[in-house]
Design goal:
- By secondary structure, this protein is of the alpha/beta class.
- It is built from 8 helices and 12 strands.
- The strands form 2 sheets. It has a 9-stranded mixed beta sheet. A 3-stranded mixed beta sheet has the order 1-3-2.
- It is elongated.
Length: 255
């Protein structure tokens, strides 16, 4: 007697098959949707960078009075063709601070593509002419050359350095000069490089009251920090020259 395999219809098996097919279709649809979504995102990104919406709209500079806006814009690595999203405000601040006579810089940007640069100019404290080139010393001790006639005209209110021939020596002097007491800087009329055989870095400070101070570049900060200028001028009003040598001040009577 042959045994024929019997098949029993199971409704559950059919439901499982349909369920598997539906799951596969959903996965395909999800994959297609993801691909389509990625394509749309790439297209939107591409369209954004091609359009003007991705570019810097404007660059505004404020706070500068003597430094020209054009000189500041020349120093930065951003312009109106730059991509706004890639604007690094910190980098721009560092670039702006390399501009002569700029003390501080703050850069901000808004979501409309506008970049704003706010600066604070350094005060000019002295100037020197070497080989017909005008050099400015600012309150930070930086030395920069200028050909700007408006800046050169304003330098007349600051002490002039004469006799300086070496730019390296001038820079050395500038770094030290800004550290001396404000009272002495404010009452200095002119500074003359006045070396002697025994002292090749000697300087001659001509004061507004007609007094003369002889100082060395290397030690003038330490010496003047301990020097009570007003007290000496009052106590020794009959002295015209004050020569600083080590811990001593040698005075010479007026003629």
């Amino acid at each position: 007697m042959s045994h024929q395999q019997e098949y029993y219809y199971n409704e559950h098996d059919e439901n499982q098959a349909i369920k598997i097919l539906k799951t596969k279709k959903k996965k395909k649809l999800k994959r297609r949707f993801k691909v389509l979504l990625y394509l749309m995102v790439f297209v939107c990104i591409g369209a954004y960078f091609v359009s003007d919406y991705s570019k810097v709209k404007s660059i505004a500079v404020t706070g500068n009075h003597e430094v020209k806006t054009a000189d500041i814009l020349k120093k930065i690595s951003v312009n109106k063709s730059s991509y706004y999203l890639f604007v690094n405000t910190g980098k721009i601040e560092d670039e702006v601070k390399t501009v002569p006579l700029i003390k501080k810089a703050y850069v901000s940007k808004d979501w409309l593509g506008h970049v704003k640069i706010e600066v604070e100019e350094a005060q000019k404290v002295a100037y020197c002419i070497i080989d017909k080139t005008t050099y400015v010393i600012d309150e930070l001790g930086n030395v920069s050359l200028t050909a700007d006639q408006s800046i050169i005209a304003s330098l007349q209110a600051t002490p002039q350095l004469t006799g300086f021939k070496d730019l390296k020596f001038l820079k050395q002097f500038a770094k030290e000069y800004v550290k001396i007491p404000e009272l002495i800087k404010s009452q200095t009329s002119d500074i003359i490089y006045s070396p002697i055989k025994a002292d090749t870095s000697r300087l001659k400070f001509l004061m507004d009251n007609g007094k003369i101070l002889y100082l060395r570049v290397e030690s003038m900060v330490e010496q003047l920090s301990k020097f009570d200028y007003e007290a000496f001028m009052t106590a020794y009003s009959d002295r015209c020259e004050f020569s600083f040598e080590g811990n001593h001040v040698y005075m010479k009577k007026c003629k």
